[in-house]
Amino acid sequence: MDTTKHIAVLGGDARYLEMIKHLTKSPNTDIKLVGFDQLSEGFSGVKQLNMDELELDSLDAIILPIPGTSEEGLIETVFSAEKIQLTKEWFKKLPSHCLVFSGITNDYLTNSVGEAGLKLFPLMDRNDVAIYNSIPTVEGTIMIAIQNTNFTIHSSKVIVLGLGRVGMSVASKFAGLGAEVFVGSRKKEDMARSMEMGLDSFNINELAAYTSNCDILINTIPALVVKDEEIKTMQSHTLIIDLASKPGGIDFDFAKKRGIKALHSLGLPGIVAPKTAGEILGIVIEQILIEEL
Amino acid sequence: MDTTKHIAVLGGDARYLEMIKHLTKSPNTDIKLVGFDQLSEGFSGVKQLNMDELELDSLDAIILPIPGTSEEGLIETVFSAEKIQLTKEWFKKLPSHCLVFSGITNDYLTNSVGEAGLKLFPLMDRNDVAIYNSIPTVEGTIMIAIQNTNFTIHSSKVIVLGLGRVGMSVASKFAGLGAEVFVGSRKKEDMARSMEMGLDSFNINELAAYTSNCDILINTIPALVVKDEEIKTMQSHTLIIDLASKPGGIDFDFAKKRGIKALHSLGLPGIVAPKTAGEILGIVIEQILIEEL
Amino acid sequence: MDTTKHIAVLGGDARYLEMIKHLTKSPNTDIKLVGFDQLSEGFSGVKQLNMDELELDSLDAIILPIPGTSEEGLIETVFSAEKIQLTKEWFKKLPSHCLVFSGITNDYLTNSVGEAGLKLFPLMDRNDVAIYNSIPTVEGTIMIAIQNTNFTIHSSKVIVLGLGRVGMSVASKFAGLGAEVFVGSRKKEDMARSMEMGLDSFNINELAAYTSNCDILINTIPALVVKDEEIKTMQSHTLIIDLASKPGGIDFDFAKKRGIKALHSLGLPGIVAPKTAGEILGIVIEQILIEEL
Amino acid sequence: MDTTKHIAVLGGDARYLEMIKHLTKSPNTDIKLVGFDQLSEGFSGVKQLNMDELELDSLDAIILPIPGTSEEGLIETVFSAEKIQLTKEWFKKLPSHCLVFSGITNDYLTNSVGEAGLKLFPLMDRNDVAIYNSIPTVEGTIMIAIQNTNFTIHSSKVIVLGLGRVGMSVASKFAGLGAEVFVGSRKKEDMARSMEMGLDSFNINELAAYTSNCDILINTIPALVVKDEEIKTMQSHTLIIDLASKPGGIDFDFAKKRGIKALHSLGLPGIVAPKTAGEILGIVIEQILIEEL
Ligand SMILES: NC(=O)c1ccc[n+]([C@@H]2O[C@H](COP(=O)([O-])OP(=O)(O)OC[C@H]3O[C@@H](n4cnc5c(N)ncnc54)[C@H](OP(=O)(O)O)[C@@H]3O)[C@@H](O)[C@H]2O)c1
Ligand SMILES: NC(=O)c1ccc[n+]([C@@H]2O[C@H](COP(=O)([O-])OP(=O)(O)OC[C@H]3O[C@@H](n4cnc5c(N)ncnc54)[C@H](OP(=O)(O)O)[C@@H]3O)[C@@H](O)[C@H]2O)c1
Ligand SMILES: NC(=O)c1ccc[n+]([C@@H]2O[C@H](COP(=O)([O-])OP(=O)(O)OC[C@H]3O[C@@H](n4cnc5c(N)ncnc54)[C@H](OP(=O)(O)O)[C@@H]3O)[C@@H](O)[C@H]2O)c1
Ligand SMILES: NC(=O)c1ccc[n+]([C@@H]2O[C@H](COP(=O)([O-])OP(=O)(O)OC[C@H]3O[C@@H](n4cnc5c(N)ncnc54)[C@H](OP(=O)(O)O)[C@@H]3O)[C@@H](O)[C@H]2O)c1
């Protein structure tokens, strides 16, 4: 019996190189790459193919790029000029047990995979992946904070908005660097956890009372929470770093008008630690393969 | 208009003294105590009454002891010989806006309060209270660990089972003291959070592989997770501390048979820090009074 | 050539059991015990002797009890009724390369060893031993603080006097448990280090300004620093723990008069973690044997 | 009686702006600036002068730039085109109680001040200043580590060489970010302190045994400690950051030959946090003025 797992990686960016490297170390794994023809270095034991060379009926899993597909089924191929489009029909040719991995999904991808009767794993939706990714996200935030201020994080007053998967990591690591951290959230239990962690906390409704005495504000809440009222009392040296996905949680126009530096810093794991970000994906995909196949 | 909040405290233990003290500092609050007649020290501005002196129709809130009532409606009065029984009829005499506080509840209490059309607040069920209480719980656990070992927590290998409200606090504080902490849980996201916190982690299914090399095992999971298989390979100096409510998560009989010291340490907040435990209740009740009245 | 190291352990307490155990694991080490005849358990490969059975001329090292000798040369033998007295003549019979270990020393011991032309290692004087021992000392202090207060260390205000070998460990671990730590010292660099560690700090001269708002005061300074002026403004719940060797740094009489609980807690490593305390000695003696022999 | 302190600041860089701002807040302080004529913004209540307008006999203190003077007595004036040279005669015109501040000193400055019978304070030689400055130094190091690796500091293996004023701060903050830190030093007490801090440690002699399994090496030892033997076994992704003053502690040529990235990162406080660096100087100068005048 063939216990080898046949996996095709279709496109992807720098993070995928480390993920592929991780998967190649997994026993009984056969990996084919499509959309990596411009890659200078190869991976030992890994074959590069064109889309039409791929034998779909032998595949156990396909790994799409982090953004999944466009609404037209197009996928990002950073390391190739090849244009790859995945039609609904294409998905239907995959074996019924074939797992489909992506970072995030959209209607087109969800529907295409669903109609083909396959299982989709949008990895970025998973709590474990979000928490692992919070680590490089925090380090990117630290780097940005150091680069964009003329004072130290140590001893500065830092507001962190949200104590979710990213917020908790941000708050604890900034505190670890010696900042005085104030966590703003809407849940009473978040205030209790902040207190247990040795941090100050407040109800997000009262944010405006805190911004006037703040050196760095870091937002992780994907909703407009930092508005004119909160911005207008800020001191001129205050730095805002918004980590929340587009459109973010800051009134950037108002901040600009008031001369408050506000940065919308997205995609930090891929920027500051593509190797770690890729490893995280490799580890999680490997675990899912073991459980599901 | 009378904006004073009329509150009756019916019974309670040492923790309630600090809670009462906290509430007396709240503005516009009138507090009556029933079941505290043997208390040596009084509270300034607080009246002591008998059950029959209480004017029920003016009450805005009643605070029952932590255990609530017995299935017969009896309540614990540590500071009184008076026997107090709360009948279903009694609850019906309370005004419809009157809030009922207790630590935990049972069928009798839930039904009695429900049938009277009142709102019940079993405080110990709240996430914020559970997290605040995890702090004295951790300190009790630390004290027990130091008392019951002849080695330091620092540099010892400590397994913490569960990364819930108590588990997370236990794990982070033992790590803060220099222990090498291994967190066992069933959720992948808990493994990710453990890793972010700098702790080792494993799936609770694999616990037996970890117990042979463990100095202290602390359980917070309210389910039988440490069984003969997990105990039999433990070294003779290993200390087990079970924090989970009765019946706990340890096969205590088997541990005893193997000569492994296993302590079921319950009610730690009230034991090691009754003042803090009372303050927590005072703070949370005060918040609820503001929101609900 | 005989490369075996011949070591005699003369007396000692519970800590010495772990130290002996550690040394027996060292290769090429032959250990003789004197003054352990009432010990129930033995050590495999270790011989118990009487004083007169000891072949002095083959010894490479002797290990005396932690307190060294009395001024008459008597040594403490917790595990024996044998009275052992080490005369100046006795030391002169030891080979010239023989190392002499003790915890502390006094004039008699220093002179006796010196006149015999031998090298004395009073281990407790060493910085590394003092720092290693600070770990169990801290844990003992934590235990005492938890046992003797009705509030948590977390969120309490803790003054630590001295940022030496013990003080630094105490300060960092109490902060790790969530206390708000204020370090009092006389050196500007200690204030800088406290600040870097995220702690508050003040000049010890200004101590009186800090004691009125303090929940726990921990002293490590071996000089009278907490006098009536500092004690008289303390709140009644304040707990003083003095770690400094006799006579300590607290006016205990005045504290008593004011009803302030003040504990002089000495010898904590041997009390809370004799195994760890013994291991520390074993590790350090082993290192010295390698370097010196 | 005139209790006003008359201070002249002669040259200096961006850090000095914050220092001046800090000193202007000190009561009874009159500040004159020389060498700041190209500064766009002024300081309220602070006068700008030319060298020859300065009334030397009324001065209580002069503050020279961080580098002091050249061996010819020239000083750095970043905010001026004026060439300022301080002759030995010039120093002799200062009142005998006038304090002279600089960052570091050299033979010329030490001699000139000494011959004039004045007291020189080379601030960077002070332990407290070195420790305060270690904070921005650490943050600069963190920034560089994040910028120059494609993996996270969290979970990476970091060697820190030296546990002095900078090394201790570096080690603790990298550990706080989740790195596995190994401290290399020559003192046994440093190994004990590392262990107490929860870090691994080794004798610097054995460095070569550790470099093969290291992701980031940070040196604070001002002596050649990382030589070919230590570099040749490093993995290609290893990053070396040398913080030690020129010539540093790394064989940079050999590292280059082996393709190991090695950065000599000096002057970090002034680069990443000039405001904090200036504040540190302001605080320390203010303290000295109080004590000495
Ligand atoms: N910049 C980057 O590189 C990067 C990296 C990773 C993630 N992200 C982004 O960061 C954001 C946070 O991610 P996450 O994983 O931490 O998400 P999460 O775990 O869902 O946390 C979101 C937090 O926001 C709070 N929140 C949501 N809506 C709110 C509202 N209207 N008012 C107050 N609080 C509200 C949530 O509180 P409740 O618990 O009360 O709902 C929670 O604490 C997302 O937008 C994510 O895409 C960015
Ligand atoms: N000793 C004391 O003084 C003291 C003080 C406070 C609380 N307690 C007790 O401590 C226990 C924990 O309290 P808590 O507030 O931390 O509760 P919690 O937040 O609900 O945490 C319970 C933990 O146990 C895990 N768990 C539950 N059932 C499990 C199972 N069958 N297998 C594996 N994991 C399981 C949960 O994991 P999931 O998230 O996967 O469900 C969670 O991590 C309770 O029994 C509570 O009464 C004792
Ligand atoms: N209770 C126990 O179980 C236990 C365990 C271990 C040690 N100890 C005892 O604890 C004490 C401290 O030990 P250690 O190893 O930390 O000693 P250490 O490293 O010498 O520290 C002593 C501290 O006290 C300061 N100090 C000394 N005299 C002072 C004075 N007159 N005014 C202000 N500060 C002063 C020192 O500051 P400078 O640096 O300015 O001199 C230093 O910070 C000793 O008495 C030791 O015997 C007790
Ligand atoms: N890059 C920057 O921005 C920046 C900022 C601040 C400082 N610095 C520089 O960083 C370096 C360290 O500063 P610091 O304040 O930490 O100095 P420090 O407190 O004197 O520490 C130096 C450390 O190096 C050790 N050491 C010295 N010579 C050694 C040798 N031959 N072998 C082994 N260890 C040795 C010392 O150990 P012992 O205790 O055993 O002597 C000590 O641990 C200096 O060169 C300083 O100028 C750079």
Automatic annotation (TrEMBL), chains A, B, C, D:
InterPro entries named among the record's database cross-references: AlaDH/PNT_NAD(H)-bd (IPR007698), Dipicolinic_acid_synth_A (IPR014215), DpaA_N (IPR031629), NAD(P)-bd_dom_sf (IPR036291)
UniProt xrefs under Gene3D superfamilies: NAD(P)-binding Rossmann-like Domain
Domain Dipicolinate synthase subunit A N-terminal: 6-124
Domain Alanine dehydrogenase/pyridine nucleotide transhydrogenase NAD(H)-binding: 153-250
Protein name, UniProt field: Dipicolinic acid synthetase subunit A
